[in-house]
Specification:
Layout: H1 2-32, H2 36-49, H3 58-63, H4 72-76, H5 84-88, H6 106-111, H7 116-122, H8 139-150, E1 185-195, E2 200-208, E3 215-224, E4 228-236, E5 251-253, H9 263-269, E6 272-278, E7 282-286, E8 291-295, E9 300-308, E10 315-326, E11 333-334, E12 336-341, E13 346-347, E14 351-361, E15 366-374, E16 379-387, E17 395-399, E18 408-416, E19 421-430, E20 436-437, E21 448-453
Parallel strand pairs: 8-11
Antiparallel strand pairs: 1-10, 2-5, 2-9, 3-7, 3-8, 3-10, 4-6, 4-9, 12-21, 13-20, 14-19, 15-18, 15-21, 16-17, 16-19
Helix pairs in contact: 2-8
Length: about 450
């Protein structure tokens, strides 16, 4: 009898499992026939938002936002937020200008839980990330919404694949902690160092790998304590002979305690070639399938950490960085590193919306699969357009955020033929009584486009 019950139970479970799979498949087929915004409404707003954002509710009155099906689209598109700080920052709930609207979307700021550190550190007056609590939208839902916004936020039409919704992982806050050492690769650790209140502290640390032969990296993972402006990894170019390399393992400060430059540190910066880095507290970047960058034998990296302490008490900086390696047999294409740096900056005193243009022209065919910007506190807008060919005048990258600029990935890559390139347009506000020029402090300025290609 017990065997019959067990058999019946397993049969029932199998039947229920099949029905569940069939239901999911059926639901997916229905969603595939729907407009993208209709999917957002039925699968996201209706499930996660309208319990609060319904006409007459305190939440709807406070936010000015109702997300029920009858009004949600008109409530979102090209509407200014009721939040005064977001309004002052020039945000719209959702703009209809495609990719250019994305970094100015207050809706995205409010739902992108993965950027919680930036949200609460830089915009505490924006309120809380939505939905309230820790049941944030899934990463699949966020990507689905992101693609909708970047496609011009249409009410009709299909601009995102519903298979994105299959990704049900979601953001979980993880405190700063050491990264696990790669099974195949290298770990770097900048041990805790003090940053005085109201000060910048920028340091360099040269680390040798002691690798007897070339290795190939296809993944970079970085974790930094809060208040970091950036962490970057450089290699020394062939102009600097090894006998002039800095001592390995020695912290080299950019500034003296009095705030003056240490020129013995600045000396090595002229020989740097950018390798990788981030301005995010945590990054885990995987190169495209079959793509890796080569680290020659007996190599070393100059590690660069920059912290800005805006508070009144000392803070600690600390960084972990992992490079993951794969066998040469798994590498189809060798990645090269893009660093476009305009040193000729002069932003007049007491100026507003001062725009600087800079062109980069490729000298070889380049398949660019990653771009991100680097600038300082007076930058208000950083745009990159295509120059020549099929991408001429096409907006490829934009950010309004100097502290946490996005890393834009391109799949397929941007193809640049020799003679084509990028037009970089950067806008600055300078309320100071002195002109701003290129410099290392966050109160100086920069105009750099980083990236990777093969």
């Amino acid at each position: 009898m017990k065997y019959f019950i067990l058999f019946f139970g397993y049969s029932l479970l199998f039947f229920m499992s099949c029905n569940t799979d069939e239901s999911k498949n059926g639901a997916s087929l229905i969603l595939e026939d729907m407009d993208t915004y209709a999917v957002i409404q039925s699968q996201i707003w209706d499930n996660s938002c309208i319990s609060c954002h319904v006409a007459g509710s305190p939440f709807a009155k406070q936010s000015g936002l109702v997300l029920t099906e009858d009004v949600s689209f008109l409530q979102l598109i090209n509407r200014v937020p009721t939040n005064s700080a977001a309004l002052a920052d020039g945000l719209l709930l959702v703009g209809d200008d495609g990719y250019a609207s994305f970094p100015k979307s207050f809706l995205w700021e409010k739902i992108n839980a993965n950027d919680a550190a930036h949200f609460y550190d830089d915009h505490p007056e924006y309120g809380a990330i939505m939905p309230l609590g820790d049941e944030f939208l899934t990463n699949g839902q966020l990507e689905f919404i992101r693609q909708w916004i970047e496609s011009g936020a249409p009410e009709k039409g299909k601009v995102a694949n519903v298979s994105l919704l299959d990704n049900e992982t979601r953001y979980t806050a993880i405190p700063f902690e050491p990264l696990a050492v790669p099974e195949s690769g290298f770990q770097f650790h900048i041990e805790p160092f003090t940053v005085a209140p109201g000060m910048d502290r920028e340091i360099f640390l040269y680390e040798k790998l002691n690798n007897p032969e070339a290795v190939y990296v296809n993944r970079v993972e970085i974790a930094m304590k809060s208040s970091s402006h950036h962490f970057l990894m450089y290699q020394f170019n062939e102009v600097l002979v090894p006998s002039r390399y800095p001592p390995a393992g020695l912290i080299r400060d950019v500034y003296t305690l009095a705030g003056d430059y240490r020129y013995e540190t600045l000396y090595h910066l002229q020989f740097h070639d950018f390798v990788t880095g981030t301005q995010w507290p945590k990054m885990d970047y995987h190169y495209p399938e079959g793509v890796a960058f080569e680290i020659p034998a007996n190599f070393g990296f100059d590690l660069n950490s920059h912290y800005v302490n805006k508070g009144t008490e000392p803070i600690k900086g600390e960084v972990y960085a992992n490079l993951y390696t794969i066998p040469r047999s798994e590498v189809d294409k060798i990645a090269k590193l893009l660093s476009v740096n305009n040193l000729d900056l002069n932003i007049p005193a007491n100026s507003s919306q001062h725009k600087i243009l800079y062109n980069f022209i490729a000298s070889e065919e380049m398949n660019v699969f990653q771009l991100f910007s680097h600038a300082h506190a007076n930058m208000t807008e950083f745009r990159v357009y295509g120059l020549g060919g099929d991408i001429d005048n096409e907006l490829l990258y934009i950010t309004f955020d100097w502290e946490h600029p996005p890393i834009k990935e391109f799949d397929p890559p941007i193809l640049l033929e020799a003679g084509q390139g990028f037009r970089i347009e950067t806008t600055y506000d300078n309320p100071n009584s002195r002109a701003l020029t290129f410099g290392l402090r966050s109160t100086d300025e920069m105009m750099i486009l980083f990236g990777a290609y093969y």
